Write a sequence for this structure.
């Protein structure tokens, strides 16, 4: 049920048309948004509406990672990966790194990830 709600919201805001994604990308993206909402609910100790959670994910997770990853200094390193492929890779790296560096920012995650990929 939640995947349908997320898809509707992403289309409504014209952020993503999930029909254009491969199945594994679509599922990964939807799962990332579900986890983001879960963490928001847990951190705020209350039920967060889906519309607020999707908007929060887009503005606080997707946008910072995407904006930084598109800088010319990273584009050369990341090559021909799509924006979504980069987001998924960097956000997973960021999540992993937060275990040892809980205050790591999106910018730091992109920089750290770039040390391990590309030329």
């Amino acid at each position: 049920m939640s995947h349908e709600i997320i898809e509707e919201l992403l289309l409504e805001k014209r952020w993503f048309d999930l029909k254009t994604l491969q199945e594994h990308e679509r599922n990964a993206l939807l799962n990332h948004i579900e986890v983001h909402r879960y963490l928001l609910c847990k951190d705020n100790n209350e039920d967060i509406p889906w519309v607020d959670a999707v908007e929060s994910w887009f503005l606080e997770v997707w946008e910072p990672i995407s904006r930084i990853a598109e800088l010319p200094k990273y584009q050369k390193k990341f090559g021909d990966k799509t924006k979504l492929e980069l987001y998924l890779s960097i956000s997973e790296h960021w999540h992993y790194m937060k275990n040892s560096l809980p205050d790591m920012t999106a910018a730091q995650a992109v920089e750290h990830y770039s040390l391990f990929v590309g030329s």
